[in-house]
Amino acid sequence: MCFAYNEALMNVHVLPSLLAADFGCLAQEIRRVAESGADALHLDIMDAHFVPNLSFGPDVVALARRVVPRLPRNVHLMMTRPDLYLQRFVDAGADTVQIHVEADCDIWAALAAIRGSGVRSGLVSRPQTPPEALYPYLALCDEVLFMTVNPGYGGQAFMESVLPKIAALRRHAASRRVPLDIMVDGGVNFETAARCAEQGANQFVAGSFLFKQAAMAAAVAQLRDRCTASLRTCPSVT
Ligand code: DX5
Ligand code: ZN
To answer: How far apart are the CA of 145 and the centre of ligand 2, in A?
Structure first.
């Protein structure tokens, strides 16, 4: 395909979501993620307004930095006004800050502020949001996250309806020769992750699936291998 670009430009990353950890021993759980060989830790911030749930705040991001400084921290803000809290998460040690395109703020300005703080920027969409809603902002995004469940809770079933959105964005990015990272989050396991990779996703957040494993390292390695093989079959990636 003439507009495809080389998948060597895109790394397959696996990110366990701390939401599924045992909150009674968070430091130990963060060490477990680091020892599993995962590429980064995904931290879900919920404000009980944008989503009907509360999780944790910048102190837990700072805890992760203190416990394992070398493990990158990928911070997913499920907040109505993420723009008011960006700097607090950057100061706490976020390496990537992701905001929702449906948030009630100037998305362009917020993405620019994230990048201006020296960290990676990410833009997230709910399952019902069309991929075209993201296109105007891609120049300011290092990664796009497609929610594959309705945001707010771990342990939900993967929504197949998101698969064509992944394919559409990968085609769009490939046609512009942009090596965009496309991440999925929600109901991710070996099978659903591979199906997302076939459509062009290259980063995989998994909460309950990875934390319930007796051997997280083996599952992380297998998830990465399976997704690497599936990504090679994506027509927009050669
Ligand atoms: C849900 C969160 C997810 C959650 C995924 O709103 O954004 O990161 O932890 O959990 P699982 O993998 O259990 O669906
Ligand atoms: Zn998340």
So the answer is: 9
The domain spans of the chain are 13-231
For the chain, the average pLDDT equals: 96
Q: Is 189 in the pocket of ligand 1 (CB under 6 A)?
A: no
Work out which ligand 1 atom sits closest to the CA atom of 188. Answer: 12
Summarize pLDDT for 80-105 with one digit per residue, the tens: 999 999 999 999 999 999 999 999 99
Q: Confirm or reject CATH 3.20.20.70 for domain 13-231, answering yes or no.
A: yes
Considering the entire predicted model, what is its pTM?
Answer: 0.97
Which amino acid belongs to residue 187? G
For the packed helices 163-175 and 190-199, what is the interaxial angle rounded to 10 degrees?
40
The DSSP bridge partners found for residue 69 are none
Q: How far apart are alpha carbons 58 and 64 in whole angstroms? A: 10
Identity of the residue numbered 196 = C
Burial letters 85-118, b for 16+ CB under 10 A, else e: bbeebbebbbbbbbbbbbbebebeebbebbeeee
Distance CA 91, CA 236 (A): 37
